[in-house]
Specification:
Length: 168
């Protein structure tokens, strides 16, 4: 099973704390599925959040809304399938009937809050995990690579003015 890198980007505004414990557990193109995880002990309601399978590609609108009542339990994962492949263990299955996630790793998949703020954004770096925290005017991102013991921390200023169609 190939796994494209995992990652997260900041959320600004009201939703910052609501989604801060979420992360990409995996993106599995050959099974047409994405797995989101919740590292907190509290449930996170992802009802109305949008999965953008081609984020940043203005020529393609592959966005689907997560159904009402969908939560990721504390310490649990949520499997989201595109519908192009049968994924019996999926918690949410959309209605695509052909491949959505490119096997070459070029897709940028993003989870957007109901107000369209970025919650998570996949990266193309193999086996990389990124967690972000945010305050009113800055963001701290810690990135660790599972293949070594390297950790990088980056702090940036407020980017609440960013477009929701960036490449993360």
């Amino acid at each position: 099973m190939a796994t494209i890198g995992t990652g997260a980007t900041l959320v600004t505004g009201e939703d910052a704390n609501a989604y801060s414990s979420l992360y990409f557990a995996s993106v599995t193109p050959e099974r047409e599925m994405v797995t989101f995880g919740n590292e907190s002990i509290h449930d996170v309601d992802v009802s109305g959040c949008v999965v953008a399978f081609e984020y940043g590609n203005s020529e393609t609108n592959q966005r689907q809304t997560i159904p009402s009542g969908t939560k990721i339990g504390g310490g649990q994962r949520l499997i989201v399938a595109t519908g192009a492949e049968e994924v019996p263990e999926a918690d949410v299955t959309f209605d695509y009937d052909s491949e959505v996630i490119d096997n070459d790793g070029n897709d940028v998949i993003t989870l957007l809050s109901p107000d369209k703020s970025e919650v998570l954004c996949s990266s193309e770096d193999e086996q990389t995990t990124t967690n972000s925290t945010t305050s009113d005017d800055s963001t701290t991102t810690t990135t660790s690579d599972d293949t070594d013991d390297t950790t990088t921390t980056t702090t940036t200023g407020d980017n609440s003015g960013e477009s929701d169609d960036s490449d993360c």
